## 1
Amino acid sequence: MWDSRCTGLEASNGKWLLQFENGVQAVADMIIGANGGQSKIRNYVTDAAVEDTGTFIIQADVPRPETNSPRFFELCNGNRLMAAHGGNFLVANPYNNGVMTYGIIFKMPQQWENSNLPDFNDAGAVHSFLRERFCGWDSIYHELFKATPLFVGLPTRKLPLDKPWEKNRLLPITLIGDAAHVMPPFAGQGVNTGLMDALILAHNLTAGTFATLQESIDDYEQKMFVYAKAAQQESAVNEHKMRDADFSFRKFFD
C-alpha cells in the first residue's frame, strides 16, 4: 500500500499488528523489513546500530554543463570520469537526465564529526571549501565547482554484521536490502546484495523445503550474513583506497 509509512509493530493473537502513519492498520503472519538503511523495523530483529565509516561524499549537479562548465564537459567527451589525488576522489557523469552529476569522496574532517557538518545549502561556503581542498588540482576542476549551484553532503554508513541477530523473536520477522546490511557504495554491491536477499528468501518461502516460516528465515539469514559481509569488506577496502593521499589516477569509461 503506497503512502503507508509503518510506525510500529506489536504481537497480537499470534500475528503481527502493523500501525501506519496514515492511521491504517494491518495484520500479517510474517514481516519482511525492506524499508532502507534507516529502517525502524530493524529494532525488532537486532540491536546493532548503523555506524559512520569516516568517509564523506559531496554530491552535486551542474545544469546545462555544455554551457556552465564547458571545459570540464569537453574533457569528459561523453564519458564518465574518475580522478583521484591527495586524498580526494571525484567521479563525474556528464549525461544524467540533462545535467552533469558528480561526487567527491574524502575522509571526513575531524571537526565534522558528531553531526557538526557545514551548511551545504550555502553554495558559496562549499565553493570555498573545495577551492582549498583541491588547491593542487587543475583549474578545470575548479570551474566545475564554481558552476555548481547546489550541493548535498552525505556521511557514509554501514550496519555491522559482526554479531548474530536475535533468535528469540516474537513472531517471524526478517530484513532484506539496506535494512539488513546498509553499506557505502564503493563496491557497487548494495543493490546486487539486496536482490540476492530477495531471491534466496523468496525461494525459501515458496519451494516447500522448510517446515516453518522461521526455518526458512534462519536459512536465508545464515547465507545472507556470508555474502553481505563479503560485500561490506570489499566496499571497505575500496573506501580506504579512495581516501589514500598516495592514490592518484584519472580514467574515462563508458
## 2
Amino acid sequence: MDEKEYRDKLIEWDKKSLAPRVKRWKQLVPATYDVTLPNLVWYYITEADDMFIRGHFIGVVLLCAAITELILADQIRSNSKMTEKEVERFGLEQLVILGHRLDILNDKETSQLNELRRLRNDLIHSKADKLAQMARKRYQVSGLDASHLDAGFYLQPIWEGGIDQDALQYLQLVRDLTVKFYGAKP
C-alpha cells in the first residue's frame, strides 16, 4: 500500500465512521471543574473521551482504571493522614477498598469500580475466557442471545451491548466521580 492508497482508505473510513463518532460524542456530557484536578487527570479524561468517540473502547477502559487510581489516591491523601509515598504503593484494588472504608466511595461506586478493575485486569492479562464470561453477562443483561459469543465479538464495536457499552459506562462513572470529588458543574 502506498501513501495515496492509505489516504484513500482513511478518507473512506472517515466517511463510514462519521455518524457513529458523532453519536458517541453526543453521549458525553461536558463538565467544568471548580478546582484543579490532580496531575494528569484532565489529560487522561480528555484522552479517554477522544478514544471513546473514535471507538477505541479497550483504551477507554484502561484509561478509566488509571484515572480512578489517580483520583482515589488524591482523595485518600486528602481524607487521611497518609503521605503521598504511602498512598502510591497501593494498587487499584487496595485504593477501592480504602476509599470505601473511608466513606469516599459508596457501595454502588465500589461495586462498579471493582467491575472496572476486573475488566481492566482481564484486558491487560489477555484472559479470553474471563472476557467471554463478561461478554455473556453483558449480552444477557441486554436481552441478546449470548450462546455462541466469544471475547472477540465482545471487543468489536459493531456489536451493540459489547465493550462499547462497558466503555461508556465506566467513562461516565469516572466523569461522575471527578464531578463528585472536584466540584464540577455539568
## 3
Amino acid sequence: MTRGRRSVFVELQVHHALVYAFNENAHAHGPYEYFRRILGGSYGPELNSLLERVIVFVEEVFRTPVLLSMLILCLANRKEGSSLPTTLIELYWTAMSGALRTAAGLADAGDIPARLEVMQQVAIANMLAERREFTSDDVVTALGSEAMGVWEKLAAADGSIPLIKTLEQKTTSQPAIYQFRHLSFQEALFSKSLLADEGAAEWTGWKDDAAAAKSLKDPSLRNALRIGGGVLAEEAKIMAAPCCIT
C-alpha cells in the first residue's frame, strides 16, 4: 500500500479453522523446518528444484521394493546432518556402502571405498561380458592378485559376501559360482564407473553419436544407463543428438 511517499507492506495470512487444525495435527511444518535447517540461507532459491528432484525420486522408489529397501537402509545408516540421496545412482552407492559398512563392522569402515572399488571391477567385467552369473576364476581375471586380497576380506566367517549370492561353493575341481543379489547392484556399480569424476577409462559405448545410440538401444545396458540417468548424461556429456532419438 502506497500513500504519498510512504509505502507499507503487510503480509496477511487467513486460515480456515478446520484446515488450520488439520495442518497442526498432521505436523505439516515438520518438513518445512527440516528443509530450512539443512538448506540454511539457500532455502528459498533451492527449495523448488530440490522438491522436484525429491518428489520424482521418491515416486519411483516407492514403486520398486528393492529401491525402497535401499532407502530404508540409507535412513538407518544416516548420520546427523548428512543429506539423503536424491537420485538413483546416489541411492545405490549410499545403500551399498552402508551394507558393506554393516557387514565389515565399524573397525573396518575405512576399508569400504577399497571394497566398493573391487566389487565395481567385478561388475564392470560382468557387464562387458554380458553375464549375470560369474565364477571365482572370473573374479581372479577381473581383479588380479593384488586386489584379490581385498575381495577375500569381503567374505564373512561363513563364507558369504555382502551384496553377492553364492550359487555354488568352490570345490577341488570346480570354481565357485556367484551372482550379485540383485542385478541392479551390478548395473549401478557399472554405471557409477562411467562417471567422469570416478577417473574411469573412456568407455567406447559413447565414443560418438552412433555408438551412444547403439548403447541406449542395448537391452543389457538399458537399466544401467537408466540408473545413471541425468547425472550420467551430464558427466559423460551424452547429449540427446537427433541420431540418438528413436
## 4
Amino acid sequence: MALPIFYLVRHGETAWSLSGQHTGLSDIPLTPNGEKHAAALAGRLHGLNLKAVFTSPLQRAAKTCVLAGFGSVMQIDPDLVEWNYGEYDGKTSAEIRAGRPDWSLFRDGCPGGETIDQVVVRADRFVQKIRATQGDCLVFTSGHISRVLCVRWLGLPGNLGRHFMNGTASVSMLGYEHALTEPVVRLWNESSRG
C-alpha cells in the first residue's frame, strides 16, 4: 500500500502578491494571470487518487480550487485561512520595517492579528484532520499558512516556516518515509505552468 500524500497548493496570483503586500484576511480576487495559472493546475493535478480536497474559505484559494477542477468536491475549512496580519494587512515588509526595522512575521506576529502560536494551533488541528483522513489529500490555501502547515507536518517549530518560501500556483507534496513513522517533504514549491 502506498503511503498517503498531502498535496499543498498555494493560490494563484493576486494584485497584492504581485506588489508584495501582506494579504491576510483581505478577501481579494485572483488577477487574470492568476486565473490562468490556477486553471493550468488542472493538468498538473489530473489523475490524482484523492480521499479529500480542502480549501481556505478565502476567494483566492477557493477560486484556485475551482479553476483547477476540484470545485465539485472541495470542502471549506476555516483553519486554512491565511495568517491574520491585523494592522499589517495590505502593507509590504518594507513599509512595516520602516517603523519596526527588526520585525519578523514568524517571530513577532502582527499587532491586532495573530501570533505564531495562534497560527500553529490552527495548523496542528488541520494536520490532525489530514492524518485522520488516511488517504491522499489536496489542499488549497495561502503562502504563510502553508509554510506553517509544512513545518508542523514535520513536527518542527512553527517559526521554522520562514525557511520554506513558496510562490503562487505552486504545488508541494508532504508525505511519509518508513511506513507512517517519518513525515517528509517530497516536493516543495514546484511551479512549472502549463
